[in-house]
Amino acid sequence: MNLIDVTQLVAGYGNNAPILHDVDLALAAGKIGVIAGPNGAGKSTLLKAIFGLLNIHSGDIKHNGKSIIHLRADQLVAEGLAFVPQEFNVFESLSVEENLEMGAFIRTDSISDSIDHVYEYFPPLKEKRKQAAGELSGGQRQMVAMGRALMSRPTLLLLDEPTAGLSPLFMEKIFERIIAVNQAGVTVLMVEQHARQALEIADQGFILVTGKNAYTDTGDALLNNDEVARSFLGGVS
Amino acid sequence: MKPLLNVFSKESIIIIICAALVLFVFSLFGAAFGFRMLAEIACFSIIALGLSIQWGYAGLFNAGIMGFIAIAAFTSMLVSFPVNEDFRQSIYATEIIWVFVKLVMGIVIIWGINRLPFLQTRVALRRLLLLVAIAVTYLIFMQNLEPVASGIEKEAGFIGGFGLPVWMGWIAGGIVAGILAWFVGHICLGLRSDYLAIATLGIAEIIKAVLKNADWLTRGTLTVSPLPWPVSTPGEIGFIASRALYLTITVIMIGFILWLLQRAYNAPWGRMIRAIRDNELSSAAMGKDVNARRLEVFIFGAVLMGVGGAALVTFNSIFDPSGFLPLHHTFLIWVMVILGGAGNNMGTILGTMIVYIVWVMSEPATLLIFEAVKYLGVEWFNWQVPNDFDSRALQMRVFLIGMTITLVLRYAPQGLLPEKIREN
Amino acid sequence: MNEFIFFFNKVIVSGAAIGSVYAMGAIGVTLIFGILRFAHFAHGDMMTLGAFFAFGLTVMFPQAGQLFGLPTGFIMLPFAMVLTALVAVLLDRTFYEPLRRNKINPVGMVMASIGVTLMLQGLIRLFGGIEARHFFFAERKDIFRLALPFESASRKIVITEPQILLFVFTLLAVLAIHFILNRTKFGKAMRAVSDNVDLARVSGINIQKVTVITWMIAGSLAAAAGVLLSLDVSLKPDLSFNLLLPIFAAAIVGGVGHPYGAIVGGYVVGFAETLSIFNWAVFLRPFRESLPDWYELPSKLALVPTEYKITVPFFILVVILIWRPTGIFKGKVI
After folding, report:
1. Residues A24-44: what's their mean pLDDT?
2. Overall domain count for chain C
3. Three-state SS for C14?
4. Residue of B nearest to C98 (CA)
5. Residue of chain C whose Cα is closest to the Cα of B386
6. What is the pLDDT, as a whole number, of residue C5?
7. Cβ atoms within 10 A of the Cβ of A162, count?
8. Model confidence at C282, in pLDDT bands (50, 70, 90)?
9. What is the pLDDT of residue B158?
10. Which residues of C touch B392 (CB under 8 A)?
């Protein structure tokens, strides 16, 4: 069974015209899914719709077979979803450690193990743990943001352009961390501008164009699809 | 074909209700009272139109309407009240002028320091000099004013007025309110909207404090009366005729203001204002000077408030600084505007009518209800009625203003008659 | 020496007292601003309401203070705080929450809070009357007069029992706020919501609970400030309105959304008030002989006449808005 199942989704902001039209998306547990496509294709919108931040006109979103379209954000977190927005994704005036604690807000058990766990994933954070997150560099902020999301021990991690604005070196590091997180058993669904690099680590790829599914296949298949490569991946490699 | 007047439209139903209310008041309390109420409604309408522009056209929150009214009423009183001969013949008439000449000199020096070319690059020094100059000017002014003010109070009561025609007083009142708005707006309009509310509330308090305590200027708690009228007074031609005349003048003023507003609304200026209100970011991005336009609206609204306030206080014929209750009266006017529909001129005037009639009628109504409560309390529970029971009972009206505001915001945020958005 | 004691009594003690009241009020205003994003105009009336709760309890149980050797009004303080906190939460549920759900703009919230303030005022005056009342109708207000061990000091330092209680309570309240905001889960969540409400929501923070806790803290601090001020002076229904402007000034001076800034702002405004109405002629009098003949020493030499005290917070407000709208501690919102 798929961990996340989006069927025939039509959604948009408020009562404005929908941005997504009949979008389908399915991802099995333990996989990495990548949503790619040109600007304005509704990639981030799809992610936000899954996380209940949009007005859903029709269609359904199932998590573990259970419809989640009527849940509030805090209920979704309790359900096992976690979301890292693209911008403003850390509490700037809170310390790194407090940011992590906020990610574990819904938990009532001890969280110190999880914090240590996050520091293992992202070692630079450990020495900065008392520092305000607003003072960190872009890459470190991204680590704080992902760490915060992991604190709720999610089964599904939604990442909105985790490498936006980062240098290629940092991009590599973030991808490497995403793989590590995935290997620990967390399903990852992310939106990426750097489609080629992202598809290389993806089990499943979804290419959206103007709010509709254009291509859906495994990462490798999409990379080897000439048409996809020409239109969306910057030429045949 | 569209009928000329749809009897069942919301607008005409509200007009019919208003007419019925007015008829009710006329038949119950007589024509003299009725005309008085209508004249007051007309004055309040001018004030409410001022607020309707600020809030409805530009989304500016003015929490200190009473301050603008008070300062305009004072100015109008100063311009139109007869000359106080005791003061004119006393030595203080020239001395007070000297005090203000010194103040102006101080301000010129401050302005000069700010502009001095040689200080432009030395910021710290300029700030220091400015601070010293402001402090010295202020202290000299206060030290000089104090003896003159108490002298005036002792020998002449207060400085009196200039004895000019009343209409000049009203215009002067509007101008002074506008200048005040320029000051407040200049500081606050670039900031979050909450700050304007706080600042206007503060300025209203300060104006009230000054008018109440500067006895040499306003007679303070002794009040100034009778203020001259622009038309024949009741003493000359009777209550009904004089009040009807007064009403006529104010209605003509409203007509003129409505004509002006209609033109402004449809002019490019009005379109720009609405564009800014509806989408500040994109208007700013299109190169419109958002804050300058807002400042214009704020000043324009304040001028109307000033003129209306001066007319209102003139009608009551008494200038009583402690009668200006900043919060209550300000929000009575707010209720008029938000209930009627901010930005809709007709709605504002109808809202003013309904709210003011209900407000006036609520006094006897509240007292009646509380008399009944008192009677039952004494009869059934042998209740000790507090001495100040009646004045306490009237506090229920304050409660009602507050409740109306919260209810309107929740259930009819656009008011009874929303602003008509024309399709372009 | 006597002049300095006079100065100490008039400026330092009084300024610290009123500053403490402003600080406690401003913490509430700043927290509400940070978390709910609007200027809460009904804060002054929550103070009055708290004071009236305490007064009502004092009238009902006038002997309670003797058991502890403290003023009865102070014994009633915790109860008044709890009651006011409940009222604050209730007000939010009935009046502010529906508007938030309708996604009304912040100015609409400000207006709603003014509606609430008028309703509270009406009710308080309906049930409480309009005259001033005193907490010490059955007890004696202790006033301590401390003599200084100097030959030249014949004046004494005067401090009242309510003032001492006010200082102690403020200190404890500030420590408690510090502890809550930095050590507890909900306190940190309050900071998180104030920092970035959207991220707080997607992190799973229960905004509703955070809102309730914010109102409880703000309400109980408002009640404490109201009770302690009325213990020191007297309980007047128009208490609230005169406090509103200084409290807003304090919150803005400290940087909106910044609790520690609000504390500093409260004392800045408090001391500015007492300093500007202080009669500085007192310090010149000892030098009367040595002053030049042409200078006639005025009997009163204050920066601002007492009647115009209200201009002081406004002046501070205007200066800060012109000079540094984010406040001295750099609040987040301008």
Report:
1. 91
2. 1
3. helix
4. B410
5. C129
6. 87
7. 25
8. confident
9. 84
10. 125-127, 129-130
What residue in C sits closest to B404 (Cα-Cα)? Answer: C115
Q: Say whether pLDDT at B283 is over 80.
A: no
Q: How many CB pairs under 8 A join B and C?
A: 151
Rounded to whole angstroms, how far apart are CA atoms C73 and C80? 10
On average, the pLDDT of chain B sits at 85
Pick the range with the lowest mean pLDDT from A106-115, C178-187, C283-292: C283-292
- Topology of domain A32-52+72-232 in CATH is Rossmann fold (3.40.50)
- List of chain A residues whose C-beta atoms are within 8 Å of the C-beta of residue C199: 85, 88-91
Handedness of CA B50, B52, B55, B58 (dihedral sign): negative
Contact call for residues B339 and B225 (beta carbons, < 8 A)? no
Q: Which chain C residues are within 8 Å of B334, Cβ to Cβ?
A: 111, 114
Residue C200: predicted pLDDT = 94
Dihedral sign, Cα of residue C281, residue C283, residue C284, residue C285:
positive
| Structural domain range at position C228 | 2-239
- Give the chains touching B; criterion: ≥3 Cβ pairs < 8 Å: C
Which chains pack against C, by 3+ Cβ pairs within 8 A? Answer: A, B
Confidence category of residue A6, pLDDT binned at 50, 70, 90:
very high
Confirm whether C331 is domain-assigned. Answer: no
B348 Cα to chain C: minimum distance (Å): 18
Nearest neighbour of A152 by CB, restricted to C195, C198, C204:
C204
Which residues numbered 357-416 in B keep a CB inside 8 Å of some CB on C?
386, 388, 391-393, 395-406, 409-410, 413
Are the Cβ atoms of C205 and A98 closer than 8 angstroms?
A: no
The pairing of beta strand A20-28 with beta strand A2-12:
antiparallel
Distance from CA of A51 to the nearest CA of C (A): 8
C185 close contact with A: CB closer than 8 A: yes
**Nearest-Cα residue of chain B relative to residue C248:** B198
Residues B261/B347, Cβ–Cβ less than 8 Å: no
Q: How do residues A120-145 score in pLDDT, each as one tens digit?
A: 999 999 999 999 999 998 889 999 99
pLDDT greater than 60 at residue A237: no
Does A77 sit within 8 Å of C204, measured CB to CB? Answer: yes
Cα–Cα distance for residue pair C116/C244, rounded to 1 Å:
14
Phi, psi of B387 (to 5 degrees): -60, -40
Fold for B16-82+163-411, please state it: ABC transporter involved in vitamin B12 uptake, BtuC (1.10.3470)
Which of B192, B206, B391 lies closest to C333 in CB terms? Answer: B192
Host H or E run for residue A216 = strand A212-218
Q: How confident is the model at residue B327 (pLDDT cuts 50, 70, 90)?
A: confident
- pLDDT above 60 for B4: no
The 10s digit of each residue's pLDDT in C224-252 is 999 999 998 888 887 777 899 999 999 99
Contact with chain A for residue C87, Cβ under 8 A: no
Instruction: Look at residue C16 and tell me if it is in a domain.
Output: yes
CB B149 within 8 A of CB B279: no
Name the residue ranges covered by the structural domains of chain B. Answer: 16-82+163-411, 85-157
Taking alpha carbons only, the member of B278, B275, B299 closest to residue B287 is B275
pLDDT interval class at C163 (50, 70, 90): very high
Distance CA A158, CA B184 (A): 48
Which residues of chain B lie closer than 8 angstroms to C276, CB-CB?
A: none
Please report the pLDDT score of residue C2 as a whole number. Answer: 83
In Å, what is the CA distance from C33 to each residue of C39, C183, C218?
Answer: 6, 21, 11
Write out the two tokens for B277.
């209100």
Contact C106 B192 (CB under 8 A): yes
Highest mean pLDDT among B77-81, B263-267, B271-275, B419-423: B77-81
State which of A171-180, B20-29, C165-174, C228-237 shows the largest mean pLDDT: C165-174
Domain ranges across chain A? 32-52+72-232
Distance from CA of B33 to the nearest CA of C (A): 28
